[in-house]
Specification:
The complex is a heterotrimer. By secondary structure, chain A is an alpha/beta fold. Chain A has two domains: 7-92 and 143-240, Rossmann fold (3-Layer(aba) Sandwich), CATH 3.40.50; 245-492, Rossmann fold (3-Layer(aba) Sandwich). Chain A has 17 helices and 24 strands. In chain A, helix 4 packs across helix 5. The two termini of chain A are 46 Å apart. The mean pLDDT of chain A is 88. By secondary structure, chain B is mainly α. Chain B has a single domain (37-317), classed as ABC transporter involved in vitamin B12 uptake, BtuC (Orthogonal Bundle), CATH 1.10.3470.10. Chain B is built from 14 helices and two strands, in the order αααααααββααααααα. Mean pLDDT of chain B is 87; it is low at 1-10 and 322-335. By secondary structure, chain C is mainly alpha-helical. Chain C has a single domain (3-345), classed as ABC transporter involved in vitamin B12 uptake, BtuC (Orthogonal Bundle). Chain C has a two-stranded antiparallel sheet. In chain C, a hairpin with a 2-residue loop joins strand 1 and strand 2. The longest helix of chain C is centred in the first third of the chain and has 43 residues, at 3-45. The chains are: A alpha/beta, B mainly alpha, C mainly alpha. Chains B and C meet through helix 6, helix 12 and helix 14 of B and helix 5, helix 11 and helix 13 of C. Chain C: It is found in: Cell membrane. Chain C: GO terms for molecular function: nucleic acid binding; transmembrane transporter activity. Chain C: It is a multi-pass membrane protein. Chain C: Residues 16-94 form the S1 motif domain.
């Protein structure tokens, strides 16, 4: 297979303002080969995908198609060149039919315009090739993520794509759906398609791919045939350090129950979830993305309504669907989507920190500016926030520092129960360690911590107990000794439901 | 590295805001200066106090409209609420009720109109644009149903003269505007409620995740907008000594134009009350000067429309030019 | 996948499809039912409502708003809105009438073409503001609503063109009937069919839906979003220009206030006709039916001797009822889809 690559990047760089997202990265994609792109969040994988798909244009370096330099001025150019992308969140038109989503802009035509019958037949043929059952006429709205991805793949097939890029396609899929997707991917590879596969799950990379390229902090680290590397090596290359030092959870004495969730159900989302978190304890909620973990957290905190069950904080029952009531009871939630849910990006650091406790900043009817500033400064120093001025908008901070602002906002309320959802997603290694230390200290001071995380090492390193969810149900509870990568993954993928 | 990045961006943002309000101020002074020199009858006390009086209704409604738009909503029904409130006033006056009893009823009508908008927006999650285009027609239509095309003019002189009276050169109604503007400015810029309004206008989800009662605040903002519209209707009716169903037709444009011209972002989360007040004054001066210069009333609408488009277009054109010269990154490359 | 799983999955998908289909159809069917009820009840109370003359008037009255509703639909399905149409109608009506009155030598087809071009030019201004300069459509067209009207006033300078000033051949276009159907209604019907066919059968038509349905995805799919949005505004402007000539021919008396406030009727017709205000769905047929319903209500009110002043309020109430109904249906669909989420996996 050492002939000319179908598509390659040569010494490509891309900067956004002063942030160099990708630096001199090279990548060769061969026909019939599945190539994995590995790296932590923020390593530059998404930027690279957007360069390949024509969304971004590189500042330096070249894109080569069959060995010839090309320029992708926009997504349309890349598509014409045979590059198709499946994003983690597929980008379908919800109001249009499945077949129109596949053929948008290339609908088969007869003399009287679009030939719907031909389009329907073509779509059905594509689905038959993929071995899936989807009605060409139904609208895309309401399709599961897995089905939406299949529509995207059908679209790629119909374009006779030669390069298929899959950006974390499995993140929201169940085990069965992943197997189906991999079957399709294997078949495409067999037909001579070049695959670029991005996933955080190492076992998927080793299962599907023949070659892996590692990125770290926007730079190229290494490219290997998959047979020459072990999972541990790969992790070391991605992280650039040893893992053990990262997770300093201290042993603490656990106190009485602070958070008690009983038979909580939200129809179609999660069912019959019961657990407790004690003071001084860190309990991890593990499982695949889409298993319902964040949804449980949202319901507990009152963002979403629950249909049945109850939540108690320090023995007091919470009113459902009221974040205000949850906060008054001592709950705090550091949400999963920092930019969308955790912060108001246009507002300043001090206003963001003050946002969850405005009542405490009042002097009579007015906000006390000194109190607002003092609170922000106090917590910024405690969390070692790197900032120029407290009046800077938070969107100029790095991801790690933004996460510290979210933490400061909630810690300033002195919560008795802290729920953190993916607390270290997309932040740099040093800050990650700081966040872990902070969570450990909080538990040590008697706070009950519920941590949702998709990173197994983080779960295993930090948690006193691990709860595992699978498809909306709590399927396992493992204490520290029993929690291993194997046992957690087995439960999360529904293999050993007890 | 983060700190290096942050400083220029932040400075540029505040500079832009200051520059925008500065620009409006310069325009205001410039237009007023031009009018004082070039337009006969502009620069005398009675005209200036008439000018101030003439902006009362727009200024009143702009106060609450600012809060509504900062919260990333819009209320296009204000002028129709004003009309309905006028119609109710005229109808009840014809029915023989004392004016002191009618006025609180009018304010109540405004509150109900606002609550109707607010309920549709917050309970059903409907876009306020669509809702208030609907109530824009509904409220005005109800006004026509109540009062038809008659004008109720025999209003008590005590009130009609109060509406046009002055304290020295300053119209009484301008004092009312000043007091309410001060209240609105304090609420928006110096209270937790104001902080919450900015936060939810900028990112509703994050505000909700911070325990801010997003729906409740939005609901009451619509109610406040309705009450303010009916307060404006009282001023309007007494000032012109005439309660008609078509009172204030088209005023919503002037109000929205003033708010946007004052630097409030149509997407919410950004803006200041002083900026809006200056824009209200600017539009008032332009209108007054053009009337004195004998320009047809309808051309004023042309100018208002143009200013409205320009106020949104100007920052966008800047952004487009920048996009051509430097690599894009949303929200960062403000130069 | 086992046979039973396949079966349940198919059942589920059919169920989902049926549900969504039903919601889509509910609207146009609803209007037809409402129309039937309106005609039935009004006709029962006053049979003169169902005479040829009365029906002809309803068609005549609805044709201009229907034409505008068709154009507005093009814009609204791209997730935009054009509030300035009434001013474009006014400008075109006055411009056309003025030329006919002052330059009787200009052939009528040239005048009509000129008005359509004038409308298209106004549409281009809106399109460039929204598509190229990224001004929110609401703000841009609220501004041009007043700007175009201002130009109209400045041009008219208080002048009024009367029927007596215009050639008879032109005026007859507004009232003449072909096979018993008034000409303006035929024009509106022709435009409706052509635009409806293009929206369904042209790739560019489908792209308008795609843009409104998911703007970012449209960019990723390689659709030239800016060009399409500008084209939608230009087409809408051209139709408004055509509506302006029809207005002049039908009413004969034209001044600078022509069609003031009509944008509301148009938007009400579009929304009542089931075009989603946030883009991506709805048809021109629904919008035209909406216009017909509103015009029929006006006539019915007159026949039933209800004050004509109630019309504005009824338009507003209908618009609100339409969006509330849409929302409630959407919520029910969403709830139904949520319940199904995990069921096929067990």
């Amino acid at each position: 297979m050492e002939d000319t690559p179908v598509l390659s990047l040569s010494q490509v760089s891309k900067a956004f303002g002063a942030v160099r997202a990708v630096r001199e990265v090279s990548l060769d994609l061969y026909a019939g080969e599945a190539h994995a792109l590995a790296g932590e969040n923020g390593a530059g994988k998404s930027t690279l995908v957007k360069i390949l798909s024509g969304v971004h244009q590189p500042d330096a370096g070249r894109i080569l198609l069959d060995g010839e330099p090309v320029e992708f001025g926009g997504p349309a150019n890349a598509q014409q060149a045979g590059v198709a992308v499946i994003y983690q969140e597929p980008t379908l038109f919800p109001d249009l039919s499945v077949m129109e989503n596949i053929f948008m802009g290339r609908q088969p035509r007869s003399r009287f315009g679009i030939d719907r019958r031909a389009m329907r037949t073509a779509a059905a043929e594509l689905f038959a090739r993929l071995g899936v059952q989807l009605e060409p006429d139904r609208p895309a709205r309401g399709l599961s993520i897995a089905d939406q991805q299949l529509v995207e793949i059908a679209k790629a097939l119909s374009r006779q794509a030669r390069v298929l890029i899959m950006d974390e396609p499995t993140a929201a899929l169940s085990g069965k759906e992943v197997a189906r997707l991999f079957g399709v991917a294997e078949a495409l590879r067999g037909q001579g398609c070049a695959l670029l596969f991005i996933s955080h799950r190492l076992e998927e990379i080793f299962k599907l791919c023949q070659r892996v390229t590692v990125l770290r902090d926007g730079g190229f680290v290494a490219s290997h045939p998959i047979a020459d590397i072990t999972p541990d090596d790969l992790v070391r290359r991605m992280v650039g350090r040893e893992l053990e030092s990262l997770f300093p959870k201290q042993e603490t004495d656990t106190g009485e129950v602070a958070l008690s969730v009983r038979r909580l159900t939200r129809e179609g989302i999660f069912t019959d979830v019961s657990f407790e978190v004690r003071r001084g304890e860190i309990v991890a909620l593990a499982g695949l993305v889409g298993a319902g973990r964040s949804e449980v957290a949202r319901a507990v905190f009152g963002i979403d309504r629950w249909d049945a069950g109850s939540v108690e904080v320090d023995g007091r029952r919470l009113r459902p669907a009221s974040p205000t009531a949850a906060m008054a009871a001592g709950l705090a939630l550091v949400p999963e989507d920092r930019r969308q849910q955790g912060l108001v990006m246009d507002l300043s650091i001090e206003r963001n920190i003050g946002l969850a406790g405005l009542a405490a900043l009042h002097k009579g009817p007015l906000i006390s500016r000194p109190a607002e500033r003092e609170r922000a400064r106090d917590w910024a120093v405690r969390l070692r926030l790197k900032f120029a001025r407290l009046t800077d908008p938070v969107n100029v901070l790095s991801g790690g520092n933004q996460q510290k602002v979210v933490l400061a906002k909630w810690l300033a309320r002195r919560p008795s129960v802290l729920i953190v959802d993916e607390p270290t997603r997309g932040i740099d290694v040093a800050t990650k360690a700081e966040v872990h230390r902070l969570l450990s200290e909080l538990a040590g001071s008697g706070v009950a911590v519920l941590m949702i995380s998709s990173e197994l090492p983080e779960v295993l390193g930090m948690a006193d107990r691990v709860l595992v969810m699978h498809e909306g149900r709590l399927v396992a509870e493992l204490d520290r000794a029993a929690a291993t990568e194997e046992s957690v993954m087995a439960a999360a993928t529904g293999r050993s439901v007890t | 590295m983060t700190t290096d990045l942050s400083r220029p961006a932040e400075r540029d943002l505040t500079r832009l805001a200051r520059r925008w309000e500065g620009l409006i101020l310069v325009l205001l002074v410039g237009v007023a200066g031009w009018a004082a020199l070039g337009v006969d009858g502009f620069a005398n006390t009675s005209n200036v106090s008439f000018l101030l009086l003439d902006t009362t209704e727009i200024a009143l409604m702009a106060l609450t409209m600012t809060l509504v738009i900062v919260a990333a909503e819009i209320d296009l029904s204000v002028a129709s609420t004003l009309g309905l409130s006028c119609a109710v006033l005229g109808w009840l006056w014809n029915a023989g009720l004392p004016i002191e009893a009618i006025m609180p009823i009018c304010l109540l009508v405004g509150a109900v109109c606002g609550a109707f908008n607010g309920l549709l927006v917050t309970r059903l999650g409907l876009p306020s644009l669509a809702v208030t285009i609907g109530t824009f027609a509904l409220f005005r239509g109800l006004a026509y149903v109540m009062l038809g095309d008659q004008a109720v003019a025999d209003l008590p002189p005590a009130y009609t003269s109060l509406a046009t009276s002055s304290i020295g050169p300053v119209p009484l109604m301008t004092v009312l505007v000043a007091v309410l503007a001060a209240v609105a400015a304090v609420v928006l810029h110096a209270t937790g409620l104001g902080r919450s309004i900015f936060a939810l206008g900028s990112n509703e989800e994050a505000a909700y995740f911070s325990g801010i009662r997003v729906k409740r605040i939005k609901f009451w903002l619509f109610v406040a907008s309705g009450v303010m519209a009916s307060l404006a209707s009282l001023v309007y009716t007494f000032r012109y000594a005439s309660a008609r169903a078509d009172n204030g037709v088209g005023l919503e444009l002037a109000v929205v134009a003033a708010v946007l011209l004052g630097g409030v972002s149509i997407f919410g989360g950004r803006g200041t009350l002083p900026g809006v007040l200056m824009a209200v004054l600017l539009l008032g001066v332009v209108r007054n000067a053009l009337i004195l210069a004998d320009v047809a009333n309808e051309v004023l609408n042309f100018v208002t429309g143009l200013l409205l488009v320009a106020s949104v277009l100007a920052p966008n054109l800047g952004a487009i030019r920048r996009r051509r010269t430097s690599p894009p990154l949303e929200g960062k490359s403000v130069s | 996948m086992t046979a039973t799983a396949t079966k349940t999955e198919t059942v589920r998908r059919n169920g989902g499809r049926r549900l969504v289909d039903r919601v889509a159809r509910v609207r146009e069917l609803g209007i037809v039912v409402a129309l039937a009820a309106l005609f039935g009840v009004t006709g029962a109370v006053n049979p003169s409502f169902l005479t040829y003359g009365s029906l002809r008037d309803i068609l005549l009255n609805s044709s201009i708003v229907a034409l505008l509703a068709v154009g507005q639909t093009l814009v609204v399905i791209t997730r935009n809105v054009d509030l300035s149409v009434s001013s474009v109608v006014g400008l075109s009506a006055f411009g056309g009438a003025l030329i006919l009155a002052d330059h009787p030598g200009v052939p009528i087809p040239v005048v009509i073409a000129g008005c359509v071009l004038l409308g298209a030019a106004c549409g281009a201004v809106n399109g460039l503001l929204v598509g190229a300069a990224k001004v929110p459509a609401l703000v841009a067209t609220l501004g041009t609503l007043y700007a175009f009207r201002g130009i109209d006033y400045a041009w008219a300078g208080g002048r009024q063109v009367n029927a007596a000033d215009m050639p008879e051949g032109f005026l007859s276009l507004g009232t003449r009937s072909v096979l018993g159907v008034p000409l303006p209604a035929l024009v509106a019907l022709a435009v409706l069919l052509v635009v409806g066919w293009m929206l369904r059968n042209f790739r560019s038509g489908r792209e308008l839906y795609a843009i409104g349905s998911h703007p970012e995805a449209a960019v990723l799919a390689g659709i030239r979003v800016r060009r399409r949005i500008i084209a939608a505004f230009v087409a809408n402007g051209a139709l408004a220009g055509l509506a302006g000539v029809m207005w002049a021919a039908r009413f004969g008396t034209v001044d600078a206030t022509v069609a003031t406030g009509k944008e509301l009727d148009v938007i009400a017709a579009v929304v009542v006709g089931g075009v989603a205000i946030f883009g991506g769905s709805g048809t021109v047929y629904g919008a035209a039916l909406g216009a017909l319903l509103l015009a029929s209500i006006t006539s019915a009110l007159a026949v039933l001797r209800v004050d004509a002043l109630a019309q504005t309020a009824i338009n507003g109430a209908l618009l609100i009822a339409a969006i509330v109904l849409d929302r409630l249906l959407a919520l029910r669909v969403a709830a139904a889809l949520r319940r199904r989420r995990f069921h096929d996996d067990h």
